[in-house]
Amino acid sequence: MQKNTEKDLQLRELDAICVNESQLQHKWYHNLKYLIVGILFGIVFVKSEVISWFRIQEMFRLESFHMYGIIGSAVIVGMISVFLIKKLNIKTIYGEPIKIAPKSFNKGQIYGGLIFGFGWAITGACPGPLFAQIGTGATVIIVTLLSAIAGTWVYGFFRDRLPH
């Protein structure tokens, strides 16, 4: 059993930066905190116009700094956060260690980034704010959500045969 778990972690490290898996078992209502944070995050997306199709189009046409400023701020916050987690050996709120797997560059990241960017430009939606867009009444985005789910399934199906 231990060998299968180690092999599973090695495979997951190819796709994820952080592969922590808590061994703690919680009651169902502990997940409500994620719902509340998700709703608040959606409100921030709406108020900052991150989910605006027009803002996304401005970004891809290089007509506005708005989205680049938001994305750049998020990247900087993420870099500082990962640096502090590594430097200070920060643990989860339950005291479990956080393991961040080393990543190596490969050309698949370029292809994946281009496909992601084209999809984002065409649909005006990236995976993060899809639900916020649907929540604001842009129900046509359900097609984008279903397409993202289908694309994830296709990747999972062919993953073993793809170059990594």
Notes on the structure:
This is YeeE/YedE family protein. InterPro entries: DUF6691. Keywords: Membrane, Transmembrane, Transmembrane helix. Pfam families: DUF6691 (PF20398). There is one protein chain. Helices cover 62% and strands 0% of the residues. The relative contact order is 0.11. The protein has helices at residues 2-15, 32-47, 53-60, 66-87, 107-123, 130-135, 141-158. The longest helix has 22 residues, at 66-87. It has one domain (2-161).
Can you lay out the helices and strands and say which pair or pack?
Blueprint: H1 2-15, H2 32-47, H3 53-60, H4 66-87, H5 107-123, H6 130-135, H7 141-158
At a glance:
This protein is mainly α.
Could you give the order of the helices and strands?
Answer: HHHHHHH
- The fraction of residues assigned to DSSP E strands is under 5%
Give the N-to-C terminal Cα separation: 26 Å
Query: In one word, what is the shape?
Result: globular
Largest sheet: none
**Using DSSP, what is the number of strands?**
0
Helix content: 55-70%
Mean pLDDT: 83
Number of helices, counting only DSSP H or I runs of 4 residues or more: 7
Helix/strand class: mainly alpha
- The tally of structural domains comes to 1
- Spans of at least 5 consecutive residues with low confidence: none
Rg over C-alpha atoms, rounded to the nearest angstrom:
18 Å
Pfam families: DUF6691
Protein name: YeeE/YedE family protein
Keywords: Membrane, Transmembrane, Transmembrane helix
Transmembrane segments: 34-54, 66-85, 110-132, 138-158
